[in-house]
Fold:
Amino acid sequence: MGQKDKEEVAAWVHFLVIKDDNGKPVRSAAVIMHPVNSEGKQGKGGMELKTDAEGKTDFDGVPYGKLRVQVLAQGFQTYGEDFDVDKAKMEITIKLKRPHGQYSVYDDHSKDSNPPAKQDAPPPDQKPN
Structure:
C-alpha cells in the first residue's frame, strides 16, 4: 500500500448550443457525451445533458482524453464531433444547422436557377430498334 493511486484528472466542460444562421440559443437540445478510446472507438457509458433557455449546459468531472459529443435538437441536423479534453476548464460552442430540403422529381422545379440537364433526343439519322 505504499504506492499512491494514480489520480484521474477531470475537467469542467461548458457547452453553448446556438443556431448557425443567426447565433440565437437552442433550448432543450440534448448534449450527449461518450468517452473515446485510443483506437477511436466509443466507450461504454456516457451522459446526456439538456441545454437551458440560453442554450447552455455544463458538466464538471469529464475525464481527460477524447470525448465524443453529439447534439440532438428538434428541427436541426444532428451534430457530432470528437474533442480532446486536455485542460481543467473547456468551453465548446456548437452551431446547429437547419436540415436541407430533399430534392424530389415530383416537385415543381420550373423556377430553379440550376435545372437538371435534359436528356438529348437521339440524332435524326439514328433509327429506333
